[in-house]
Amino acid sequence: MFLSRKIFVGAVTVIFLLANTAAGAFAAQIKKIDLEDAIQLSLSNNLDLQSQRIDVELAKNSVKIANRLQNPEFNFFYNLGTAGRSEPQQIGLRDVVELGKRSPRKKLAKSELYKKEIEVKMSEFTLEMDVRETYVDLVCAKTILNDLKEQQTVLEELSHAAQKRFESGKTSQTDVLQAQIALNKLAAKVNIARSALQAARNDFNKALNIKEDSDVIYDTKEDMLPGETVFIALKTPDFNTKLPEFDKIAAKALEKRLDIKAAKQEIDIAQKNLTVVSRQKVPNLELAGGYSFLPSSHADSGKYESGAYIGASLMNLPLLYSYKPEIKNAKLQIEQAQIKYESAKNKALKDLNTAYERLLTSQANLIFYKNKLVKDSEELIKISKKNYQDGKADLTSVIVMEESYREILAGYDAALADYYTDWIDFLREVNAEDFNLFNENL
Questions:
Q1: pLDDT above 70 covers what percent of the chain?
Q2: Whose CA is closest to 406, among 177, 153, 203, 162?
Q3: What global pTM score does this model have?
Q4: Which DSSP string corresponds to 141-190?
Q5: Does CATH number 1.20.1600.10 belong to domain 31-66+98-283+318-430?
């Protein structure tokens, strides 16, 4: 009695959750888009990317700031008291001229701007790969659900056949119960697959990160992974194509990596920063000039006297402090940037090798599943199903065979998904969305 009550409560809970899920899905508008549209949509409207692109605009303004001229000072000197009767009054300007500083500072700002542009390209590329990966994951989740539904149809047919054979006296009620149990077990897996599908759809929309109406949910155009047209649509090479040797693609791949370009740019920034720091030792020149006058009541001649004044001075003479610590730090930063650059290249080569080996493995697994296991299992399950309907096989054997086929099909789906995602991981390591793996000129 207690067990029945638990089952009842559990069933009510499942129905309630499914009802809420269905209501939420009904309230939201599902909009299907293909992979290319998803990528372009995210590149144009992704909120994180929009925020980072502002960094480039900020860096452009920093170039203008670095190239600025010093604003002049307006001075007015009026002598009071007895001194004012013999000394001229002055009105003029004073300005500081930076010697050898402005040009290096501007070059440093430009170098930092270029690094920001590289970082935005890296973010755009990472976003594109994230969209591709979540897109494929969503199609994969839909594929798994569709395969389970197909297996559910097979079990429903077997259950119907068992019921007919029982009604005709050709088998016992055990077959009917056994078929129903197998069908219920599969129904639980279908519900889990539906939940996984919803999670994959949420991840896809999270990757897009678009400020849209809350009642719009984006979905993939494709509902199944297999098929040559899908390979083309998902920008993935045919798994039957032989991959070139690793050495043939490594050099070209490393040239395209944006993180290596960014690390190299850090060296350029550090070198330009050393120039900026070193130029602090150069004194600044202060220039002053203006108009001077002496009222007639104060002049010995009894007339209004006018004239001008000019002046110059050197500022910040490096006598007491010569900026040695700053210069030493700037040199250390160059050394540090060079080490990071070499480290980035070493790690990139190892990561690329790992991604390449994984792609080879997933390709081999997919070919084995496609050409051997799936094909043979499909034929075998058809024969077993017909034999049971004709009374030539028992239901237990057919169900065991069906479960084995389901495991093989799940393995094939996983192998197919691995091939797609491993290709995307490979593209991540070469930092190129349009990398031609099969180019003879590699």
A1: 81
A2: 153
A3: 0.74
A4: HHHHHHHHHHHHHHHHHHHHHHHHHHHTTSS-HHHHHHHHHHHHHHHHHH
A5: yes
